[in-house]
Design goal:
This protein is mostly helical. Helix 1 (about 5-50) runs parallel beside helix 4 (about 115-130). The longest helix is centred in the first third of the chain and has 49 residues, at about 5-50. The termini are far apart. The chain folds into 2 domains: about 5-160, no CATH class; about 165-198. It is built from 8 helices and no strands. The model has no long low-confidence stretch (mean pLDDT about 90). It has helices at about 5-50, 60-70, 80-105, 115-130, 140-150, 155-160, 165-170, 170-195.
Length: about 200
């Protein structure tokens, strides 16, 4: 393998490993923090609804808070695995750091020979594939995008793989939701104008 190909391969694998680490940490955070935040916000909404009975959409707001509270019960199925998410996140972060170090070592090597790096690279791969947690918490992928690109040092990956904001840093499903929201807003505006001019 040539140096250029190896660096690109390391960056791609670094992305996979680092994103995996952040996805596990995202699941860990969602399980531990979201129920408390939902409880706190529900309490505030309840107090505001008692104090101001005539606020608009009062009933709808109550229904929304109830649905969110019910959806939090989904997280209970993950409570017994919360430590596994944290341990896997730490393990993958260590592998990410090894991959990054190997990348910079290979990049600065003027007498590059793949055989010199092959054993360490194969060990990183073996460690990476040795353990995975397949079932992650809902929405952990969106949160992992944020944690990966904005909390982790990923500039070397972004530069090597030519990652861009809209194409790579926003989750695909979030893009679809944004597009649907824009279509709904445009449709609402058109409908509003058409009914006003009749």
């Amino acid at each position: 393998m040539q140096k250029k190909e190896f660096l690109k391969t390391l960056a791609q694998k670094g992305y996979d490993i680092g994103f995996g680490a952040k996805k596990n940490f995202s699941s860990f955070d969602i399980i531990n923090k979201l129920p408390s935040w939902v409880g706190f916000i529900s309490l505030i909404v309840g107090i505001v609804q008692i104090a101001y009975k005539d606020i608009p959409f009062n009933k709808e707001l109550s229904i929304l808070v109830i649905f969110v509270g019910i959806s939090i019960m989904y997280l209970e199925t993950f409570k017994n695995r919360v430590e596994n998410f944290e341990k896997e996140g730490v393990r993958l972060t260590e592998l990410f750091n090894k991959t990054r170090d190997l990348y910079f070592e290979a990049k600065s090597d003027n007498n590059f020979s793949y055989s010199f790096y092959d054993v360490r690279y194969q060990q990183i791969l073996a460690d990476f594939y040795s353990n995975t947690i397949g079932k992650q918490v809902f929405m952990s992928q969106w949160y992992a995008h944020f944690k990966f690109f904005y909390e982790m040092q990923t500039k070397w990956i972004e530069e090597e793989l030519n990652l861009t904001f809209f194409k790579d840093k926003l989750p695909g499903s979030l893009k679809v939701i944004f597009i649907l929201i824009i279509i709904l807003i445009i449709a609402s505006i058109i409908y509003g104008y058409s009914t006003n001019f009749r």
